[in-house]
Design goal:
By secondary structure, the chain is mainly beta. It has three domains: 7-167, Acid Proteases (Cathepsin D, subunit A, domain 1); 179-302, Cathepsin D, subunit A, domain 1; 315-385, no CATH class. It is 9% helix and 43% strand. A six-stranded mixed beta barrel has the order 5-6-11-7-10-9. It has a six-stranded antiparallel sheet with strand order 3-13-12-24-25-14, with no helix packed on it. A hairpin with a 4-residue loop joins strand 24 and strand 25 (297-302). This is Aspartyl protease. InterPro entries: Peptidase_aspartic_dom_sf (IPR021109).
Length: 386
């Protein structure tokens, strides 16, 4: 395929586009799926609390691994695979992430994406070059299935069975389970669902319902000032990475009552200086999730008690094979964010992990005890209580 003329445009945010809406509409409008009224199923794996689906792009022989992500405006296809498939360049736009990192990407179109035997056609996608510090490349190396594809159907997410069910028809709901149904909205041309929730005595609007986020509920820091009481914990972080890498953040955690529809629970809520506003899988995995784009409704059916995983207060990261870096810490730990370490538990990175992705997938092996032993660059030995 010959590259088409590139048109330059600018995204003001991840969902608001200043480029001609006509161009984006043209890019998205032919998208469709085969046999739309049938009820179909796609199995998934659940890695690092993310939904990973297998798909074939065009006539590729490679079974690619993609992150299923309602929080992504457009799907993404990894750049080297795009080159192999000779996908065309259509226009360029900026793309921002929840980490506050923005880069230009080139838009293209995938003729077909096949999941098991189910096909979606003419899917717009950004050509993706993962940052080397991106954890996403370790679980979804071929890219992201974004909301521009997801909005073509109605979906059921069964976290226990590791199964996605979809159809253009309305999906039947399990009537043996208690349900809460909430409306959602999307912005122009977007399939990203946004909901309203009640947090303590305040209403929080436009929370992204994001199955591409492996955390729980995270909100802008400005909301914390409206709530009574002190935060339970403060962490300084650069461990959370998106497709374009990491950014420094201060996160405060507070246990609060949360109401979503008729569902009421109490969970640890995170507040971020990066102004994230997301509800992710650490919360949603306790439910059957029905996402109905025709009615613009989400139905949640609770399958187990809602518990958000405790946040790690200290995380060492990779610099290279021989050095660690402090990617998360607190003001109670005598080591600063970004400090370099010689050893963790008496070992260098390459003595514990074979690669960066091995580290990403198996970092929990560092936390088998309630302490970490550190050696600083000046030879000082410290023991960190977790």
């Amino acid at each position: 395929m010959k590259p088409l003329k590139i048109i330059f445009c600018l995204a003001l945010t991840t969902s608001t586009i200043s480029c001609s809406l006509v161009e984006h509409s043209r890019l998205q409008s032919p998208a469709r799926m085969d046999n739309p009224k049938a009820i179909k199923e796609i199995p998934f794996t659940y890695e690092k609390d993310l939904i990973i689906v297998t798909a074939l792009a065009n006539n590729s022989k490679l079974q690619g691994q993609y992150i299923f992500d309602t929080g992504a405006f457009y799907s993404k296809i990894e750049n080297s695979l795009s080159n192999t498939l000779e996908l065309p360049d259509i226009f360029e736009k900026s793309n921002g992430t929840a980490q506050g990192v923005t880069r230009m990407i080139t838009m293209t179109k995938i003729d077909s994406l096949t999941f098991v035997n189910h096909k979606f056609y003419d899917i717009a996608a950004g050509k993706l070059s993962y940052d080397k510090s991106s954890a996403s490349r370790c679980v979804g190396p071929q890219g992201i299935i974004g909301s521009n594809l997801i909005k073509l159907a109605n979906w059921k997410v069964d976290y226990k069975k590791r199964l996605l069910t979809f159809s253009s028809a309305k999906l039947p709901v399990d009537n043996t389970l208690k349900s809460t149904t909430i409306p959602f909205s999307t912005s122009t041309l977007s399939g990203i669902p946004e909901i309203n929730i009640q947090l303590g005595n305040i209403k929080v609007e436009d929370v992204i319902f994001d199955v591409g986020y492996n955390g729980g509920l995270i909100l802008p820091m400005s909301y914390l000032d409206k709530l009574d009481g002190n935060e339970d914990l403060v962490v300084f972080d650069q461990s959370i990475s998106g497709i374009f890498g990491t950014n420094r953040d201060t996160i405060k955690i507070k246990r609060l009552p949360v109401k979503i529809g008729t569902l009421e629970t109490e969970i640890n809520v995170e507040f971020s200086t990066l102004n994230k506003i997301l509800l992710g899988n650490d919360f949603l995995e306790h439910f059957l999730v029905y996402l109905d784009y025709d009615e613009e409704e989400i139905t949640l059916q609770q399958t187990e008690k809602v518990e958000i995983k405790p946040i790690k207060t200290f995380i060492p990261g990779f610099i290279n094979d021989s050095l660690w870096i402090v990617n998360r810490t607190t003001d109670k730990i005598p080591i600063k964010l970004g400090d370099t370490l010689r050893e963790v538990n008496g070992k260098k990175p390459n003595e514990m992990f074979n690669s960066f992705c091995d580290y990403i997938k198996n970092i929990n092996s560092l936390y088998t005890n309630d302490t970490l032993r550190l050696k600083t660059m000046n030879g000082q030995h410290l023991t960190i209580k977790l």
